[in-house]
Amino acid sequence: MKKYLMLSILSFCILSSSCKRTDTVPESTPIIDTVSTIQPTVKADDNFMKAMNTMIVKMNAIKMTNDYDFDYPKMMIVHHQGAIDMALMEVETGTDKKIKAIAQNIIVVKTEEQSTLKEILQDAKPKKHKIKEIHPEMQNAMAAMMKEMKAIQLTGNTDRDFITMMIPHHEAGIEMSKSLFFHSKNTQLKKRAQKEINEYTKEVKEFQNWLSVHK
User: Fold this and answer.
1) According to DSSP H, which parts of 134-157 are helical?
2) Stated pTM of the model
3) pLDDT digits 0-9 by tens, 30-62
4) What is the 3-state secondary structure (H, E, C) of 43-112?
5) Residues ≥6 apart with Cβ < 8 Å to 88
6) 44-123+145-213 falls under which CATH superfamily?
7) Which residues are CB-neighbours of 162 under 8 A, at least 6 positions away?
């Protein structure tokens, strides 16, 4: 009898706990629980690290609504800006013609994509969802990117440092874009996300090939 009573109590507790997950999440919930800025390994004022830290802080400051079609564009606008800022540095001080050309293309393409995402958000309003956990995929992608970047050893070579920083940046963008397909109902956003995945995947391969040759 005691055994059945304990099972009943346990079942009730589990159900009660599950029910609590339907509480509406405050809009102020950040995408990353904590942000520890990445410290440069070459010099304290390294501009690549500054650009990346600025991007991470701004992404963390975004107020999540739990509406993926609203939150994803907001996140990617900031994510694109991080790529643009680093690409500008590569164009200005890099020496490898191929990498500088890729950086110039990133500036043009990501600026255009920012404009498109801003247009999507212009008249958009977030829908209310009652789910406790907010976008774990975005959190996981950002956490993985931060972990990888903290292990980066900068060399002082602009081309190499640009590529080394952009690989985890792009990988995070790929993961966030992939997660959109599990949550979004917006056909336009899905097309943008697929384009994002294709572009970033291509560039990551180009970066990795360059690193394998320039050891």
Assistant:
1) 136-150
2) 0.76
3) 444 444 444 444 443 478 888 988 998 898 888
4) CCCCHHHHHHHHHHHHHHHCCCCCCHHHHHHHHHHHHHHHHHHHHHHHHHHCCCHHHHHHHHHHHHHHHH
5) 103, 107
6) Ferritin, core subunit, four-helix bundle (1.20.1260.10)
7) 48, 86, 87, 89, 90, 94, 99, 103
Q: Are 136 and 25 in contact (CB under 8 A)?
A: no
In the chain, domain spans: 44-123+145-213
Q: String of b and e for 120-146 (b: at least 16 CB within 10 Å)?
A: beeeeebeeeeeeebbeebbebbbebb
Q: Are 134 and 115 in contact (CB under 8 A)?
A: no
Cβ 210 vs Cβ 99: under 8 Å: yes
To which residue do tokens 């005691």 refer?
A: 2
Of 166, 170, 145, 137, which is closest to residue 38 (Cα–Cα)? Answer: 145
The type of residue at 6 is M
> Whole-angstrom Cα distance, residue 69 to residue 100?
33
What pLDDT digit, counting tens, does each position of 168-194 carry? 999 999 999 998 988 888 898 999 999
User: Alpha-carbon distance 163 to 83, whole Å?
Assistant: 11
